[in-house]
Amino acid sequence: MIDLFFATLGNLLTLQHMGYMLAGVSLGLVIGVLPGVGGIAGLSLLLPFLYGMNETSALAMLIGLLAIVPTADTFTSILMGIPGSSASQATVLDGFPLARQGQAARALSAAFAASMIGGLFGALLLTFAVLVASPIILAFGTAELFMLTLFGLSMVGVLSGANMVKGIASACLGLGFGLVGAAPATSEYRMDFGLLYLSDGIPLVTVALGIFALPEILDLLRGGGAIAQGAPLGRGWYRGVRDTMANIWLTLRCSGIGALVGAIPGIGGSVVDWVAYGHVVQTSKDKSQFGKGDIRGVIAPESANNATSAGALLPTLLFGIPGSGSMAIFLAAMILLGIQPGPSMAAENLGVTYTIIWSLAIANVIGTAMCILLAPGIAKLTAVRYALIAPFMIMVICFAAFQATRSFADLMALLAMGILGIFLRRFGWSRPAFLIGFVLALGGERYLYQAVQFYGWGFVTRPLVLVIAAIIVISIWAGLRGTKGGSSIHTEGSAEFSVARNMTPQIIFSGVVLAGFGFAIQQGLGVSFLAQIFPIAVGVVGGAATLLLLVQQARGPAAAGSANFDGEAQAGDGGPWRFLLWFIGFMVSVGLVGFFAALVGFFMVFLRVIARSSWVQAVALTAGAGGLMLVLANALNLVFPGGLLQEYLDLPWPFR
Amino acid sequence: MTRPNTPFLSSRRGLLRAGAGLGAAAALPGLAQAQDFAGRTIEFVIPFAEAGGSDVWARFMAPFLAKHLPGKPNVIVRNVPGGGSITGTNTFYQRARPDGLSFIGTSGSTQFPYLLGDPRVRYDYTRMIPTYVSPTGGVVYLPKSLGIENVSQLARLRDRELVYGSQGATSLDLVPMLAFRLLGLNVRHVFGMRGRGEGRLGLMRGEITIDYQTSSAYITQVMPMVQAGTAVPMFSWGVLDGQGNVQRDPSFPDLPHFVEAFEMVNGSKPSGVEYDAYLAFFASGFAGQKPAMLPHGTPDNIVAAYRKAFSDAVADPELQARKGDVLGEYKQAVGDDVQAVYRVATTIKPEAREWVRNFLATNHNVRF
Known about the structure:
Chain B: Belongs to the UPF0065 (bug) family. Chain B: This is Tricarboxylate transporter. The structure holds two protein chains of two kinds. Chain A is an all-alpha fold. Chain A has two domains: about 1-550, no CATH class; about 575-650, no CATH class. Chain A is built from 26 helices and two strands. In chain A, strands 1-2 form a two-stranded antiparallel sheet. In chain A, helix 4 packs parallel to helix 16 (about 350-380) and helix 7 (about 105-140) runs parallel beside helix 11. The relative contact order of chain A is 0.15. Chain B is an alpha/beta fold. Chain B has two domains: about 10-135 and about 290-355, Bordetella uptake gene, domain 1 (D-Maltodextrin-Binding Protein, domain 2, 3-Layer(aba) Sandwich), CATH 3.40.190; about 140-285, D-Maltodextrin-Binding Protein, domain 2 (3-Layer(aba) Sandwich). Chain B has helices at about 10-25, 55-70, 85-95, 110-115, 175-180, 195-205, 215-225, 260-265, 275-285, 300-315, 315-320, 325, 335-345, 350-365; strands at about 40-45, 75-80, 100-105, 130-135, 140-145, 160-165, 185-190, 210-215, 230-235, 240, 245, 290-295. In chain B, the strands form four sheets. In chain B, strands 2-1-3-12-4 form a five-stranded mixed sheet, with helices on both faces. In chain B, helix 9 (about 275-285) packs across helix 14. The radius of gyration of chain B is 21 Å and the shape is globular. Chains A and B meet through helix 3, helix 15 and helix 19 of A and helix 2, strand 2, helix 6, helix 7 and helix 12 of B.
């Protein structure tokens, strides 16, 4: 076995294989840097090239891409406050404040170092785990998976923001949005308004970008200047690495969490960064700086998300069951290459498995080196006036959003979630709590129903279920000790600056949310018993929390205490609405003339009017943006979403 | 609900289609000669996201089709996901032009809502023109712990409840649901599985007591369990021959197919409306699972070019050498076989359809 282990390394280290790996890593770097575009789109780009490729080269290329995405997606999370992919949402919480304090270099190097350690740890673990992991994966039945979703939800305790009741209501709101579409137990449709688009549920990418990215883009535009308020990048490259080394146990613990969560099929990598973030908060004595720029808040999620890829490979290779969206595509790629995953991957085909592991380790090292080399250049963007960057960001999040169904409806969903995100942010409703609820909604419903079907309610006495329950209790206790009435982390900005005199806007929003919970209950009553439990439970709990919040808020600005939160309380510029109108205008023109034509128009007008660019600059930036879209769309065989014009006229691509 | 384009009106629709085809051919005299796609890009529309069976199938076939279409065009796969494949198929059906530059590959998941009369379906299989149909198969197996050695002992299980992990009452798992019912088995269907792999994992954990896997997954994942003595194969779904009769699966020649299993258990051949319903969904979900179709009104010469290209592609020794698990051992329906298999896979007797709708509405709260 050891002979084989090193023989596969020798086989891999040829010019040809390493060349393909470099190609994969380079593409993954670009894909990772673009916000919202992650491993799924990246691997899809590579699928057409697999035909006729050498097996080792192809695996090196695919793994090269997969390995670097959770490293490279850190750039936008830290530098722009926009999650680069679903794996680094939690990095935003502390990474972005660090960048705004001029410590971007330190945050980035700490993140890269943590990523590399996480990736190498994952590869090392995989080497042994592939031989022994089957019984562990099989130990997690539906009952245990349900408990794990509860464990994920318990992170809300840490991420609830200043007011715990509001945090719970936020999580319930996310759960409610997650339940839109077909019920797992009966396939009945709930809260879908009869729309075919909503029958599959709202895509996660759309929710994440709408909730986090769009409000951030509009807010930065309002600020008027560049992202970095002080020195654009600052020094501290070595300090960042030293930070990670000083927290090496934390890094390894979070790597272990990442690998474990990744390895259990059904939970998926979308929550692993939050779990790691919750873990670091729970185990830290001094929690005062979390959410304001604590370097540990960067190290924890970044070490976890790189280890997740290695963990997720286990069920994919051993059982042919992909643990995440990108693993599903990796599985398809393996079948196209003629490799059928299964128990043989730990026996006859162990060589293939070791090729994958070596590729993972080498690609992590190469990827980290490339990120460090490119970091100073990319970080200079934070010194550029944001008005020049915003249209690119809007373009990329739209591109990422319409990967879901390639239609105008995706953009409408992005806009709707964006508007919700603006209000959540403004009124201090924890967006991390919302997202955790959203991600875990369907899994929670599915596993609870299946566990009851398989074991009856007696499932709660299974030994592993009790162990996870104990962990949940400890984790909630650890997160709450030493804090009063809410978590110490202000996910939506500082509460001290957000005390409003006029409570009306907050009360109206709480009322709208309450109506939303009422709608969930009403929709739940319309379907059969098995499909109504979750919507009604979420509606009742969320509704009760919102009512409690409304009672607090109705007491008046001072008596409401932490329930009073309005990010616009001190604002004098009329809010983000002016820039939201620009975005809506872009959406309307997409609806009229299609995405590509609207994009060109939007760029030119925005750059001339808002950014006050010269004609030369505006044309150059527009051409660059359009060119990037064309290259990506061409590689993905993508037709841009069309508008009314395309209904009547048959235009040539890219206007088609 | 009612829909004007019901699948069983095929004769009248067939006439209309022939008329439309003639009209289109007459209107485009320049295309009446041999078709040449040199330098063109052809879209193979797949109404599913990347990864998954249909996408892999299309990506595997695309280069071979490109090689054998006249003029060796560039064939690309265009994924149009959403709405459980209804969205993309609706759009293709309403928008695609009959110029041979785009065609669609659907799956059982697209055919089932059509056969069931789902009101969201806007496409009509009788009007699209099939050029190639790819079958698949599967094997039903049990955990060894049930004490059943082979299918002839299956009736012993009738007095105990079995558990099956299903992806949904109207998903491809409708076929095993109808099959278990015909065999008189008492099966509880636990829904919400995402793919057959989760069902298999459930069986390995002991949560599930009856399962089936498609052929490739059965060979790589279940056969090791059979060899280790933890699982026992029961029967395969079988395949359809040119006359529409169920035959043994070529990947599992030693296993009885479902109809044989039925005879062993019940002592007679299956018949009646329930069996008609089963047969329609079996044909649509397995024996004719993946048809490739041109839009209605496509001129005959283009249709002929496609049928020949698929025929040549399937005969290509390179394809045969590489097909592995993507196509399996199954006889691909090309050339003259296409029409017969396609028709069986996309039609259902009106009374069988009514029976299934009633069955699903009564037992599983499905609303139409």
